[in-house]
Amino acid sequence: MTVHYDSQIEMPPADMQEKAKRPVLPAILRGAANKCMNCGHRGVFEGFLKTRHACSHCGEEFHHHRADDAPPYFTITIVGHIIIPALLVVEVLWRPAIWIHMVTWLPLTVLLAVLLMRPVKGALVGLQWALYMHGFDPEAEDDLPPAPTTGEGTR
C-alpha cells in the first residue's frame, strides 16, 4: 500500500492586505464596561441585554454579534465558583440552619447572576469584535443561511 501526500500549500495572493490587529484585552474590558470596543464611547446596550444597532459616536455596528447562550453559561459558571465555596465555608465554620442558608444564598445567587450577565455579554461581544468574528469582519461573507423564498419548503 502506498500513500501519497500532496505537500503543496496554497498561499494567499500577494495583493491581499492583512487586517489590522485589534487589541483583545482592551476590547473585552470596554465591552464589559458597556463602552464601544472601537472608540470607548458609552452605550453598547440599549436595554438590559439588547445591543444597540451601532455606536452613536463612531458608527461601529454591534447588531450582528452572536453571543447566543454563552453569556448565561459563563455567568452561571462564575456565580457557581463564587457561591459554592462561600456556602461550604459558612457551613463548615458555623453550621447554620437550612433556612438561613436559603435566605442568604438564594437571593445572593440571583443578585450576582443579574449583576454579572450584562458585563459578561459585553465582554463576549468585545471578544468577537477584536477577533473579527460574526459580522465584525467587513470582508467576510454573511455567515447566516439565506432566508427561504416565498413558497419554498412549504407544503
**Average pLDDT over all residues:** 87
The residue ranges in which pLDDT falls below 50 over 5 or more consecutive positions are none
**Topology, number of strands:** 0
Instruction: Calculate Rg over CA atoms.
Output: 23 Å
The share of residues in helices is: 40-55%
Using the alpha-carbon principal axes, give the shape: extended
Count of runs of 4 or more consecutive helical residues: 3
Biggest sheet descriptor: none
Structural class: mainly alpha
Beta content: under 5%
- Order of SSEs: HHH
Whole-Å distance between the termini?
Answer: 51 Å
Structure, described:
The mean pLDDT is 87. The N and C termini lie far apart (51 Å). The chain contains three helices and no strands. The longest helix is centred in the last third of the chain and has 33 residues, at 98-130. Helix 1 packs across helix 3 (98-130). With 155 residues, it is mainly alpha-helical. The chain has helices at residues 24-32, 70-94, 98-130.
